[in-house]
């Protein structure tokens, strides 16, 4: 495109909340043939709320013995989880702490706390040693997650993010949080698919939750990449691009920055972090997935003007 056409395109885009990081980006956007969406905060609002608290009894202990005592009270499970999560800024942690607060529960003191990216948290509290997170977190700590399998599966099929709560080496319960799919997500996916773009969803969330959300927005099962660790997102983009596909990666989080860089075009969505915006070629100020279409349309229009 001529510098003048590029300037016009960029100005129109900016007025629509679509910021291109330079004129060459405006030209490269139209080369894209696949769009990869991060799930949380991109396709969904990213505002988690606590939906379920379940107590699990008779859990197997890390040392192989069985716990004889009956299942704890649900309020105890929530108090244990919320106390341990009180030092975390993860959206899931905030949902748990808010949920406990709304139920008027007292939180225990925390003496140590560690964040395990993509898995959960480990904390020592007045309740004891606590883990809150996914199966991988428990397994890595020698705690058997199996007693909660049925409960986890049921909640995950509902599209919720279910988290195991372990206390002193045994599962004591499950807490779940859910997010709302953004209003324009489904229409955007079907519009992109209709125009011939291959649409993918990428998430650190487990396979069942991912499948439920993908189904809600109309993304094909085979195009879902779940349980991706923060460091693995760029690798997933690379693998999608391995056959020459040019991917646009749309994400919002700190974790997403390497994936945005790996993609042919990296798009940071609105409410995202500064880190994501720095790594991005395009920023969508309105946090609306439909603006992906706007960016593509403006790019194509700008090009065709000079042809
Ligand atoms: P996403 O890719 O959706 O942003 P993350 O990579 O942050 O997800 O987390 C992946 C998974 O790890 C979550 O679905 C959850 O099971 C677990 N997890 C991460 N952080 C926490 C936390 N603070 N508390 C409980 N579980 C967590
Ligand atoms: Mg995220």
Provide a short characterization of the protein structure.
Helix 1 (3-15) packs antiparallel against helix 13, helix 4 packs across helix 5 and helix 7 (149-157) packs parallel to helix 9 (207-217). The chain has 307 residues and is of the alpha/beta class. Helix content is 39%, strand content 23%.
Explain what this protein looks like in three dimensions:
- It is found in: Endomembrane system.
- The protein has 13 helices and 13 strands.
- By secondary structure, it is α/β, with parallel strands linked by helices.
- Helix 1 (3-15) runs antiparallel to helix 13 (291-305), helix 4 packs across helix 5 and helix 7 (149-157) packs parallel to helix 9 (207-217).
- The model has no long low-confidence stretch (mean pLDDT 91).
- The structure holds adenosine-5'-diphosphate and magnesium ion (MG).
- Residues 39-40, 85, 88, 90, 92-93, 118-121, 132-134, 161, 163, 203-205, 230, 253, 255 line the site of adenosine-5'-diphosphate.
Task: Produce the secondary structure layout.
Blueprint: H1 3-15, E1 18-20, H2 23-28, E2 34-38, H3 39-43, E3 49-55, H4 74-85, H5 91-102, E4 110-116, E5 120-125, E6 128-133, H6 135-140, H7 149-157, E7 161-167, E8 170-178, H8 185-194, E9 198-202, H9 207-217, E10 224-225, H10 233-241, E11 247-251, H11 257-262, E12 265-269, H12 274-279, E13 282-284, H13 291-305
Parallel strand pairs: 2-9, 2-11, 9-10, 11-12, 12-13
Antiparallel strand pairs: 1-13, 3-8, 4-5, 5-6, 6-7, 7-8
Helix pairs in contact: 1-13, 4-5, 7-9
The protein binds adenosine-5'-diphosphate and magnesium ion.
